[in-house]
Amino acid sequence: MRARKKKHGAERIAACAHLLIGDPTVLKNDPQAPFPTARALHLEIGCGKGSFACGTAAAHPEINLIAMERVPDVACLALEKAERCRDERPDNLRFLIGNAENLTEWLPPHSVDCLYLNFSDPWPKAGHAKRRLTHRLFLERYQTVLKKGGVLRFKTDNVGLFDFSLEQFAEMGLTVTDVTRDLHNSPLNEGNVMTEYEKNFSEKGFPIHAATVHF
User: Does this model's pTM top 0.85?
Assistant: First the structure.
């Protein structure tokens, strides 16, 4: 679904500029540059309205989190949410408006400890498989920016995307652990931070699929 155009979106994003990595090329020399303190670096691709990013940053003061969103009008909402909850967490959250296709242009090799994919677009048509964020082409990008031993944490409500993703992980020879097709009714749900989408779907009784992928 296309995001509705936000009134005064550019001005609203500018008002939160202190939370935004306006020039992502600065990360290439020092991915910790946007943060006042260097910590383990985590990256969320497709942060939506920002609930997961804000919740994770608050729950884990030992990390720095970059939340990426390619749609500016959606990123606007995430930035404003982060601004409202800034007193509930350390200064460890920044946002980046951009496309995951450019990850290796922005981030140096082996600089990210953990990467999150939460409820990515399933691109259900077979001809769109290469657009899926768990396609081998994207996994190769993640392998470049993740540290040796880094992990990808993946959640989706889409059975087709989950099955496709498990196949792609296997083809890449990646180790997959903590696989569940009903996250919220499993022991793995302890400490789980929900997205807006996840909360809505789980309340309707839809099972959430999840896996941890080791690089």
Answer: yes
